Amino acid sequence: MPDIRTWQLATGAAALGLVLAAGAVTAAGPWESGRRTAERDRAAEAEAEPGGGHRRPKGPAPAPSAPPVLTALGAAPKTAAARGEAAGGPARELARRIEPLLRDRGLGPRPGVSVVDLTTGRELYGRDPGRAMIPASTVKIATAVAALSALGPYHRIPTTVHATPDARSLTLVGGGDATLDRAGLRTLARRTAGDLRARKVTKVTLGYDTSAYRGPDLHPIGVNGNIARVTPLMVDQGRTDPRSTGPADRVADPAGEAARTFREMLENEGVTVGGDTAPGRPAAGSEPLAEVLSPPLADLAERMLTTSDNDIAESLARQTAIARNEEPSFAGAGRAVREQLAVLKVPLAGARFADGSGLDRAGRVTPRLLTSLLTRAAEPSHPGLRPVLTGLPIGGFTGTLESRHTGPAPGSGVLRAKTGTLTGVNALSGTVPSHDGTLLGFAFLANDTPSPTAAQPALDRLATALTS
């Protein structure tokens, strides 16, 4: 007999996949890295999805529609008429359950709320849903949607070695892959050394190029355990200990450290590297010699959301800027994210994207913007956005919700939500199935909160109330 955590997790996966299928998304399987294989094929086929230069060839036909799947499980899919039963009834019930909880002092003086039916997009409850507030890390939902819609879920970020025609002058060129680790860099060193051996070149010089980004590389909060300098070239996210996870000490110069590590790896492959390893553009006439690619953008978005990875978030914001021909800087990325979201026709009044990670307190979003983004990610016309839903942490199981909604809590295994935490700012935005099988999208933003220990339980009680 499966343990309760396995059963809860299976229930949560079914709730997300099947409830969406009943109202908005074609069900398919099996799961592949948190997404359904057929959904990835549909994303590659969808002509409306941007990022056409990085689409995969057409795959198998779409999977069967949801009703037979639900019937096999003994659940009758709801009709549109059933979802709209007793107009105003669900909204009244939500208000009855939520409003007493909103009086919790842990939520500060004026929390903002938006709750929607993700299968229809209809807002069921709102309190100040259009008020712009500090989002903290829930802004990563916007970062993910912008990057996926601008580039497509199969886009990969390259790290490249350029060489002069005689292959004696090399330049390591960063493309913005914030997930590059020592294993990936070693693969690049081996490929480079192999090409050099084929050309009978044994001695080279090495430089490194970070020109893919512009503007300051230091986040306004500075370098700390949560974020490195924002540079297109880094290895192990600039961590001083590559084995560390979560918040960790960072090196002062991630790009220079990556280049020095690459130099050592080349020398271990039998290539003699002379002179200094200094920053600079590739020499005239240089062409790509070897490269490694990041995981697909869908995987990067999921990892960013699940673990609230700030380095990946800033990378994806700049990739969006590059795709939209904006300057790949903090300011240019903010403009690009806003422009890309405008294409999706979501409410942007009052929104400001000061960074991709939400660490900058100058950022602003509205609760209604967050639920609108979740709604877009659930729509069949945007299959490439599905990783926004599947990447959300699962209550009691994964990422930043692993230690919340644990055990027999109603949200365990079924609640999926992005957390947000800064001093005086706490937020939660994601999805949860209600008691009748409706998949709800929600955003709870609380500013001027007294402490996380007071705010987080209050937010969790709000989310739990939606399941009742």
From TrEMBL:
Provide a GO biological process annotation: proteolysis
Keyword check for Protease, yes or no: yes
Q: Where is the composition biased (Basic and acidic residues)?
A: 33-45
Its protein name is D-alanyl-D-alanine carboxypeptidase/D-alanyl-D-alanine-endopeptidase
Respond yes or no to whether keyword Cell division is given for this record. no
Question: According to the UniProt record, where is the region Disordered?
Answer: 31-71
Enzyme class at the top of the EC tree = hydrolase
Protein EC: 3.4.16.4
Entries under PANTHER family matching the protein? D-ALANYL-D-ALANINE CARBOXYPEPTIDASE, PENICILLIN-SENSITIVE CARBOXYPEPTIDASE A
Which Pfam families does this entry report, sorted A to Z? Peptidase_S13 (PF02113)
> Which branch of life, at top level?
Bacteria
Any idea which GO molecular function terms this record carries?
Answer: serine-type D-Ala-D-Ala carboxypeptidase activity
Similarity section:
Belongs to the peptidase S13 family.
Q: Which UniProt keywords apply?
A: Carboxypeptidase, Hydrolase, Protease
